Amino acid sequence: MPAMRPVLLMTRPEAASRAFVEALQAAGAADFDPVISPLIEIVPEGPLPDLSDVSAVILTSASAVGAFTALGGRARGPAYCVGPSTARAAKAAGFDVRATCRDAENLVARVSGTHHGGPILHMRGEHARGAVVERLAHAGLETAEAVIYRQPERPLSPQGCAALAGDRVVVAPVFSPRTGDILARNGAGAPLLVAALSEAVAKSLAPLHSRAVAVAARPDQPAMLTCTLDLLVRAGHLETGQDGL
């Protein structure tokens, strides 16, 4: 009997999930069945911030760029970004990307050391980590924030529930502690391999029974692609009985 293909369970918002699946396929991964079941929805919410007196903006997710443009915002001035996907979205929207940082820690250090202009605005979602505004203010920079999108939870789809309750190996890339918290509440009976963006994400998944949790070498999409590709290979070994875990 031929081995069953592993399931790739994607829990990011729809567009980001599909883009990640396409990136995996472009990298050569093909022997998996994707199940897209977003656990968080991105809902743009005003008011649109006024950038006329802002010397630079901080963008810590591509969702912030999408929400800004969906609300009718027109890009102007410099932007400090976290992650290459955020930087690409910001550049496409018309911002002058001054720095692409690894994470919030790296961003705070970069902005604190290089920004000598006027006020900075962090445009973000209602759920955020890193205390970016507080830390920059502590460093003496005039910094404010604008919440421009909500992130309501969504239930795991019937297909996602079936995957976690089934016999096939499931590979689940998880990109945020909040998504990890939501996923962990669902439980898992299937053999589950998790690719976590960071140690904080891995910690959020502790209540979830999993065969393995691998943390990406860096908190960015390229490292998550590498981590997920490795787990897909390991999942294939599990399905064929070559359990190297």
TrEMBL record:
CDD domains, sorted: HemD
InterPro entries per UniProt: 4pyrrol_syn_uPrphyn_synt_sf, 4pyrrol_synth_uPrphyn_synth
Coiled-coil spans in chain: none
One Gene Ontology MF term: uroporphyrinogen-III synthase activity
Any GO BP annotation: tetrapyrrole biosynthetic process
Location of the Tetrapyrrole biosynthesis uroporphyrinogen III synthase domain: 22-225
Protein name (record): Uroporphyrinogen-III synthase
